[in-house]
Amino acid sequence: MSQTTYELKAETRERVGKGSSRELRRNGLIPAVIYGDKQAPLSIALSTKDVTMKIHAGGFMTTVAVIDVNGEKIRVLPKDYQLDPVRDFTMHVDFLRVTKDSRVSVQVPVHFENEEKSPGLKQGGVLNIVRHDVEMSVSADNIPEFLSVDLTGLKVGDSIHISDVKLPAGATPVIADRDFTIATIAAPAGGVKEEEEAEAEGEAEA
Question: Which domains, from first to last, does the chain contain?
């Protein structure tokens, strides 16, 4: 479980809009909004450098942060951020207020383990990942860093469903109406075709 938090300094924004946002970015700041917890949205500005470092460090969307807004410390979880499609710098961030009792929906990454213990992969099969992450409903104070999928013993044609994954205590999939697929062990490229050709040759000889 991710218990680590970090703190970011921020200042309130009196003006909003495209012109104000462009001016902030020229001054090394990112416009952002804090919303939720039945309170009015709060427009703030953050250091571009500090936010970019946290995004690139990984786990940005699954780690609770403390934002110091002019001395008021607000616990938040990043919910969305926008990147410039050309220059790849952060343009805007949305934060959700959270408390110790908050439940949140987060995209939790899926990690695959013991590939070397999968007969299907050792025989040349391919791990076909259907979901690289799974949306989970969790406590804000107990967000899993990742879900672990054990590939031990899996053969070509086997599938891994969410029911096969050991979920952290208190974590439930947002999709609850079906046992959705996480990954499959697919046949090697050309494997099916070669088998069909072999069968056709056998039939011709017969």
Answer: 6-99 (2.40.240.10), 105-193 (2.170.120.20)
